[in-house]
Specification:
mainly alpha; elongated; 12 helices
């Protein structure tokens, strides 16, 4: 006599129950987060976080550049040298935040384990880097405008083409923010990230503010490698009576290209640091 399980019999209760139960399908995952909405969300969150330190940030960055203008007024009288001093001091406000503060922020974020929080969020890595860089760079706009206006009045330069700062600030900010974020994410210790940010800001100060006519050839080569140099050159050209807009747009294009490359490196550095 053979023994047959009860659940395989056609009239059994278990067989009828299995036939009535619907077949469960695998749950579908939600759509992948898109870059632009994620970027806006991270930007707003970082902007709200950094708003607490907005007043000290604006004061320090602006006071530093205005002090350099006053100091250089006793050395430079006017002409092309004054144009470089004013343009370099204005871009220095962007460098102070993008290189110095952003390197410190990402260095501390990596050391404290804050990257683990962002790694769990359904946002692309590029949104985290671009959102943080954009939030910090937004605070440089008032200080850059104040420095540019003060420098033009101090050296007697025209205020006609200050609208070019609307192009200079984003492209120079993107290039320098990418470098600052990469410094903070690649440095093994937050102290080293701070040192790298300080060195980068010092390079932007010395190579961007000082007139290039008085620099040796070796220093000029290093100056050409600094991405903020092209933002300084683009802004300085607009002080002339008849600006060559082709060269202005060319300098801005070079700065924008370096910005895309540096932000791509920073995104790669974020992925590398987040998985460790």
């Amino acid at each position: 006599m053979s023994v047959v399980p009860a659940e395989v019999l056609p009239g059994s209760a278990l067989a009828v129950q299995e036939q009535q139960q619907p077949v469960r399908e695998a749950a579908e995952l939600g759509p992948r987060a898109r870059l632009w909405p994620s970027l806006v969300a991270v930007y707003r969150a970082q902007l709200s976080r950094a708003r607490v330190a907005r007043i000290p940030l604006l004061f320090v960055a602006t006071f530093q550049s205005v002090g350099i203008l006053i100091m250089m007024r006793g050395v430079v009288d006017g002409g092309s040298e004054a144009e470089t001093v004013v343009a370099g001091s204005a871009v220095l406000v962007v460098a102070f935040v993008a290189l110095n503060l952003l390197a410190q922020y990402f260095g501390q974020l990596r050391a404290s384990g804050g990257l683990d929080h962002y790694a769990t969020l359904p946002v692309p890595p590029a949104a985290v880097v671009l959102g943080a860089a954009g939030a910090y760079a937004s605070f440089t706009v008032p200080g850059t405008l104040v420095t540019a206006v003060f420098g033009c009045v101090l050296f007697g330069l025209p205020l006609t083409h200050l609208w070019v700062l609307a192009l200079v600030i984003p492209v120079a900010g993107a290039a320098l923010s990418g470098l600052g974020a990469a410094f903070g994410l690649l440095a093994p210790r937050p102290e080293l990230a701070t040192v790298l940010g300080q060195l980068g800001m010092s390079a932007a100060l010395l190579l961007g503010v000082l007139p290039p006519d008085r620099m040796p050839d070796g220093v000029l080569f290093i100056r050409d490698l600094l991405p903020s140099t092209y933002g300084v050159e683009a802004f300085a050209r607009t002080f002339r009576a008849d600006p060559d807009w082709a060269f202005v747009l060319g300098d801005l294009a070079v700065c924008a290209g370096v910005g895309v490359a540096s932000l791509a490196v920073a995104t790669w550095a974020y992925r590398r640091a987040a998985v460790r």
